Amino acid sequence: xxxxxxxxxxxxxxxxxxxxxxxxxxxxxxxxxxxxxxxxxxxxxxxxxxxxxxxxxxxxxxxxxxxxxxxxxxxxxxxxxxxxxxxxxxxxxxxxxxxxxxxxxxxxxxxxxxxxxxxxxxxxxxxxxxxxxx
Length: 134
Known about the structure:
It contains three helices and five strands. It is of the alpha+beta class.
């Protein structure tokens, strides 16, 4: 399994008139965690793009269990439970201390700059396989 986590401090601009985090911000936080996971794997997203590989979001969903508020300290955890071949399915938990306040899933595919589905670069596959078997 691949996993990473990032800490988020809720900014005032991320809340709505009721003082609750606006739902779309969770997807930004999911992206922050995904980018951190690729960094930790040793395959930064910026390097993938330079090599003409992109990971667009094919689908995304989230379930909100409890609201988050301005100045909350949150942890966003991302996990990839299956070895990515062409598609990646990422699972997320957003926690405030020990409380899970949101969960989510995103699905991605490796594509070229022309939008064609491609196999991931060999270095990505090798790094991911090593984490799954190690």
